[in-house]
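Handout, section B. The chain below has 290 residues.
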Amino acid sequence: MTNPAERLVDLLDLEQIEVNIFRGRSPDESLQRVFGGQVAGQALVAAGRTTDGQRPVHSLHAYFLRPGRPGVPIVYQVERVRDGRSFTTRRVVAVQQGRTIFNLTASFHQPEAGIEQQLPMPEVPGPEELPTLPDEIRQHLGELPEALERMARRQPFDIRYVERLRWSEKELRGAEPRSAVWMRAVGPLGDDPLVHTCALTYASDMMLLDAVRVPVEPLWGSRGFDIASLDHAMWFHRPFRADEWFLYQQESPIATGARGLARGQIYDREGRLLVSVMQEGLFRRLGLDG
């Protein structure tokens, strides 16, 4: 299996080991900890597998409690909190080697008619007008470092920054804490709506905290901070496909006390708001204890 999109679908295909208990694989990679978007996506799969499949997820709220260890399976324990006439609620605890590393509460809503309004999508260039992320890095560095080359080959999403990346302190000066990217899976993800929702959940954690860093340091290159996601919340407004282009608009209203808050809006190419996202991250300068 060489297609990164196929590997993502396989990663989200959990093994059911008991009623309400699922096991997910965690790829053995040269990472210090498991990618948070993977854990969130797998936890949402576990929650969705315990519903009747007729109610799409409309929101999730999650906390990252401990770093996960790459290469070690993660067990997802689902609590069926409520099955109401319109809403279904599930709570998921992710356990690795006997320790809780993550918990998530997800709510599913029976589709129904109601008010229709939204703020407009910002005007930005289309994805075809922008370089791929690997190409933009190559334009600056001449070639990709070996670690980034491996990462690019495994990357399940095509990522294109709306604004050119900043590489120097001079370019950073005066930059607002905002970022925007076009994204889509690099291959088809099938037709299961839950797979697309969980794939986008995976993608939503990939660079949301970039908005916090934009005024402080280049987004690619050596980091001056140890960064960790603390929590994650999403509201799903409309159906979508994660293998079609979507715009991920991000901004950080505040960073203080070693924590940065970021919020994002995800739009389709027609300008429809699909998903809203909020996340807080821990930002500790490297070399500091605590």
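Note. The chain has a mean pLDDT of 91. Compare this with the example in section A.
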